[in-house]
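Progress note, sequence design subtask.
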């Protein structure tokens, strides 16, 4: 079975040579994020995640419109936050992006509090569910007649339609009970953050059972950092160097900048880090040091090329079909992973049936 292998462009101002130490050359900007994306495209990655954060960097949708004509084959996985934009306008923007990219758009749905407007988990995920239902219909060229708690629409589909004539794949993640239910009903790809292999297997089983109740089949994605070097010792040295100038106060400050610091998923990443051994490993080759200064994806796969590949293949055997990877600095680690591991993986863009 082939897998989709994607990289990450640091739109949310998340790029460091030394974790927690700002570097103006790595700050979120059009130039820097463009370079990461164009490099990942040239190196043969299947996709690139364009993340979204209000105070943390530059806008994902605007960036995608600018980068689409500068890339050749890479899929643009554009993160959008539910509630920030009225669904019909969002559908028109995304359909236009899909046309601009020649059908290379995918959508990462984020169920997040809006800046200045926090919302309890249950209604927030209901808003997300309604958004996903309506967005999927509009981007499939269908008219919408929907009356929900947050969205009430009776509307034709926008004339600007996706290149392939169907809704681009919807990627979505979350560990809370309402998040899992929304994913089972509405998502195409369920994304998860790093965890031990036993925990990943249990989550896959749970989500498959939930999807069955809706007579649906989910695909599964795994979002993680990587640190790969010619030898395991060199990889460990790189990991230690990355956090060598980080103190706990600075790490807490960085984590608390995010809008989702209290989410179940973020708390699970913190718990994973607390369960790790003295060197920060939650299990073999899964290092949680990155999470000391990051509220979301908080662990890295660390090792030599054989070890990193073996770890990824073990997830693949469980049923993971797409990987979204990153590393610090993102441009350099993008090249290292493409040199040492990517050519050894059977990979291609994920297709939906």
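Output:
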């Amino acid at each position: 079975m082939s897998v989709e292998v994607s990289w990450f462009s640091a739109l949310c101002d998340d790029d460091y040579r030394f974790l927690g130490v700002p570097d103006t050359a790595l700050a979120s900007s059009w130039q820097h994020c463009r370079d990461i994306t164009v490099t990942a495209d040239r190196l043969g990655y299947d996709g690139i995640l364009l993340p979204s954060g209000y105070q943390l960097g530059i806008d994902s949708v605007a960036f995608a419109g600018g980068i689409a004509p500068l890339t050749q084959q890479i899929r643009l996985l554009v993160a959008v936050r539910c509630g920030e934009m009225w669904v019909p306008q969002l559908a028109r923007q995304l359909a236009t992006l899909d046309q601009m990219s020649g059908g290379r758009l995918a959508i990462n749905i984020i169920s997040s509090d809006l800046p200045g407007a926090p919302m309890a988990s249950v209604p927030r995920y209901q808003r997300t569910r309604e958004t996903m239902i309506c967005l999927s219909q509009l981007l499939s060229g269908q008219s919408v007649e929907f009356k929900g708690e947050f969205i009430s629409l009776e509307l034709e589909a926008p004339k600007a339609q996706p290149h392939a004539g169907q809704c681009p794949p919807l990627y979505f993640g979350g560990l809370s009970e309402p998040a899992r239910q929304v994913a089972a009903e509405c998502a195409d790809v369920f994304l998860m953050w790093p965890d031990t292999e036993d925990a990943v297997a249990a989550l896959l089983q749970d989500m498959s059972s939930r999807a069955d109740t809706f007579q649906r089949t989910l695909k599964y994605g795994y979002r993680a950092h990587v640190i790969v070097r010619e030898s395991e010792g060199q990889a460990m040295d790189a990991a230690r160097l990355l956090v060598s100038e980080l103190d706990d106060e600075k790490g807490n400050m960085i984590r608390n900048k995010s809008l989702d610091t209290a989410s179940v998923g973020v708390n699970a990443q913190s718990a994973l880090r607390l369960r790790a051994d003295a060197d920060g490993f939650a299990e073999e080759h899964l290092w949680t040091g990155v999470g000391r200064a990051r509220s979301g994806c908080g662990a890295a796969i660390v090792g030599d090329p054989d070890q990193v590949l073996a770890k990824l293949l073990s997830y693949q055997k469980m049923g993971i079909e797409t990987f979204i990877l990153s590393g610090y600095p993102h441009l350099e680690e993008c090249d290292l992973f493409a040199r040492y591991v990517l050519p050894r993986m059977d990979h291609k863009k994920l297709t939906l049936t």
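The chain has one domain: 4-225+303-344. Work on this subtask will continue into the next period as scheduled.
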